[in-house]
From TrEMBL, chain A:
InterPro entries: ETF_a/b_N, ETF_b, ETF_beta_N, Rossmann-like_a/b/a_fold
GO molecular function, one term: electron transfer activity
SMART domains: ETF
Protein name per Swiss-Prot or TrEMBL: Electron transfer flavoprotein small subunit
The species this protein was found in: Propionispira arboris
Signal sequence range: none
Classification of source organism: Bacteria, Bacillati, Bacillota, Negativicutes, Selenomonadales
Transmembrane segments: none
Domain Electron transfer flavoprotein alpha/beta-subunit N-terminal: 22-213
Pfam families noted in UniProt: ETF
UniProtKB/TrEMBL annotation, chain B:
All residue ranges annotated as the Acyl-CoA dehydrogenase/oxidase C-terminal domain in the record: 229-377
Family: Belongs to the acyl-CoA dehydrogenase family.
Keyword Oxidoreductase belongs to the record: yes
Listed name of the protein: Butyryl-CoA dehydrogenase
Keyword terms: FAD, Flavoprotein, Oxidoreductase
Keyword Oxidoreductase among UniProt keywords: yes
Domain Acyl-CoA dehydrogenase/oxidase N-terminal stretches: 6-118
Length: 259, 379
């Protein structure tokens, strides 16, 4: 049985700064990383393989040339092989393009029984790619999954929706999108890190994937991206008794229309 | 000349950083305060293949190079110097003599479980009357009926009492002085081997430092490392590697203190602005960063020389001398940036300051490093 763990190489949000005096984002010093929830995706796939040695886990990503750095990191977490669709088109890809590209790659790879995604990426969190891939492949999708169990060609998944849990059983092949609480990614051991460079990586270009041109053009256009800044008034009430200070605070909040 | 880490070294550094943040940082202040040995961290170090990191896979190691190991010690020490030295004393000092000069049987019996982290290692050269003058030790190991009988006292032994395997230096022929010094693998629990005084230290308080007392302790003849009389050479060469580890610990401590100082300077507001906007603070930070980078280059240079199989005794001594004194300097300045807050135990730099001091003392004081360096110059 083949599990494909899909992940995205994103900019580390800790390194993204807001340019002082504007809301522009400075990403020039941002390093890349595997999207946070996608580490859980790889971990969950590997946990399934540890329970059942007939399970083979591979990792798949669509990213630009810089995403090469992600492969050893991903492979050190347990998958036996990496697939990398290396194309600069990833820079402007939206959920539509990414889903088309990954679907084409999955068809090329051929071996997939269970395809795992994070519920959303830690940059855009569009929640588009998993369900779109399932639709394109014509297979079932289960979203918001916090627990999964595979047996006899089926997967039983617990979905967390609002304040309740829904248990779903689907036939394989299927796509499942995972919430981070599904598992906690482990820190790879040094032998795994060193062993990752010996694992095979297969690289595709967009041209290798038999995609029609219109499926590689994003449907979303980003007009601008702005940082979110919280302005503080830094008002400190120093005069009066505690009661008076509380009254001043309430009066101030009321004046701002916040109460 | 390429000053870049390889992709592999970068990945191992990231792993060590992630490990340190997950397992070492959360308990660093607590083990400093209580003096508790972080057994659970050492267990995790073993689980993540750190304990035999620079040793070949055939002996249970991870097969990484020494520079990568240096990066690991640095990353761990950045958040917890106690864990840094527990690890470095085990890996650099406890394992190397067995790996380098031990028989194949000794390697199978001791090196493999040490590399896997099933056992903890320690190294015992220093004696109450033999510190910098390491050649004046009086511990003896006299061969009787196919066993060596050990007598004497070792002191200031890192991992003492906790380690399962000790490298002990003792005179097999006291009449020959240092030419009669030999090295042995001694297991914990042997009759006549006791753990003496536990030292109450200024810093690195999560690591344990004790006396080792030998009273007619019988050690199997096979536990002699290499040849009789070569002990001093083995000890000095092992310490060359150990010094790179301590130097890495020193730059880790310094970097941890600088990071804390930078963060504090950006957050602390005086005269209506963060103090980071003041030149008085900026210049201190600039000097700290420059010192650390210079020290780091010396440390990586020594580790790389060891990896190339070159003689690196002078390089290791220079790295340790400069890195240790840098740690002292940087931690003093880091407290200065904090002002009065830096003197309070709630702030990390107070611990860094106390931890830093040991780096210019153990595995040879700064003066010993200068002896090694000038010795190489004047040869």
């Amino acid at each position: 049985m083949d599990i494909v763990a899909c992940y995205k190489w994103v900019l580390d949000e800790q390194d993204i700064k807001i340019v002082p005096g504007s809301l522009l984002l400075d990403t020039s010093r941002a390093k890349g990383k595997i999207s946070d929830y996608d580490k859980n995706v790889i971990e969950e796939a590997v946990l399934q393989a540890e329970k059942d040695d007939t399970v083979t886990v591979t990792a798949l990503t669509f990213g630009n040339a810089k995403a090469k750095q992600s492969l050893k990191d991903a492979l050190s977490r347990g998958p036996v092989k990496g697939y990398w669709v290396n194309d600069a088109a990833a820079d402007i890809a939206d959920g539509f393009v990414t889903a088309n590209v990954l679907t084409a790659a999955l068809k090329k790879i051929g071996a997939y029984d269970l395809i795992l995604f994070g519920e959303g990426s830690s940059d855009a969190y569009g929640q588009q790619v998993g369900p779109r891939v399932a639709a394109l492949l014509g297979i079932p999708v289960v979203t918001f999954v916090t627990k999964l169990e595979i047996s006899e060609g089926k997967v039983m998944a617990a979905r967390k929706i609002g304040d309740c849990t829904e248990d779903v059983t689907v036939n394989l092949p299927a796509v499942i999108t995972l919430l981070p609480e599904v598992c906690k990614p482990r820190i790879p051991g040094l032998k795994q890190v060193l062993g990752a460079s010996k694992k095979p990586v297969q690289e595709f270009k967009l041209a290798d994937l038999d995609l029609v041109a219109e499926n590689t053009l994003p449907k979303n256009k980003i007009k601008s991206i702005q940082g979110y800044a919280m302005d503080r008034k830094n008002e400190i009430y120093t005069d009066g008794t505690v009661d008076e200070k509380v009254n001043t605070l309430i009066a101030s909040l009321t004046k701002e229309g916040l109460l | 000349m390429d000053f870049q880490l390889t992709e592999e070294q970068t990945l191992l550094q990231q792993s060590a950083r992630e490990f340190a943040a997950t397992y070492c940082e959360p308990i660093a202040a607590e083990i400093d305060k209580t003096g508790r040995y972080p057994a659970e961290t050492i267990e995790q170090l073993a689980k993540h293949d750190f304990m035999g990191m620079p040793y070949p896979e055939e002996y249970g190691g991870a097969g990484a190079d020494y520079l990568s190991y240096t990066l690991a010690v640095e990353e761990i020490s950045k958040v917890c110097a106690s864990t840094g030295i527990i690890y470095s004393a085990h890996c650099s000092l406890g394992l190397w003599p067995i790996y380098k000069w031990g028989s194949e049987d000794l390697k199978k019996k001791y090196l493999v479980p040490l590399c896997k982290g099933e056992k903890l290692g320690a190294f015992a050269l220093t004696e109450p009357g033999a510190g910098t003058d390491a050649a004046s030790g009086t511990c003896t190991a006299i061969l009787m009926n196919n066993e060596y009988v050990l007598n004497g006292t070792k002191c200031f032994i890192t991992n003492g009492g906790l380690a399962d395997v000790y490298i002990i230096f003792a005179l097999t022929d006291p009449s020959k002085g240092i030419k009669g010094l030999s090295a042995f693998v001694v297991e914990k629990g042997l009759v006549g081997f006791e753990i003496g005084k536990h030292e109450d230290k200024m810093g690195i308080r999560g690591s344990q430092t004790t006396e080792l007392i030998f009273k007619d302790c019988h050690v199997a003849k096979e536990n002699l490392i290499g040849e009789e009389g070569k002990g001093f050479k083995y000890a000095m060469q092992t310490l060359d590697g150990g010094r790179v580890g301590v130097a890495a610990q020193a730059i880790g401590i310094a970097q941890g203190a600088l990071d804390a100082a930078v963060k504090f300077a950006k957050e602390r507001v005086q005269f209506g602005k963060p103090i980071a906007t003041k030149q008085a603070i900026q210049w201190m930070l600039a000097d700290m960063e420059t010192q650390i980078q210079a020290a780091r280059l010396l440390v990586y240079n020594a580790a790389a020389a060891k990896d190339r199989g070159e003689s690196f005794s002078k390089e290791a001594a220079m790295a340790k001398l400069f890195a240790a004194e840098t740690a002292d300097y940087v931690c003093t300045k880091a407290i200065q940036v904090h002002g009065g807050y830096g003197y309070i135990k709630d702030f990390k730099v107070e611990r860094c300051y106390r931890d830093a001091k040991i780096c210019s003392l153990y595995e040879g004081t700064s003066e010993v490093q200068r002896m090694v360096i000038s010795g190489a110059l004047l040869r």
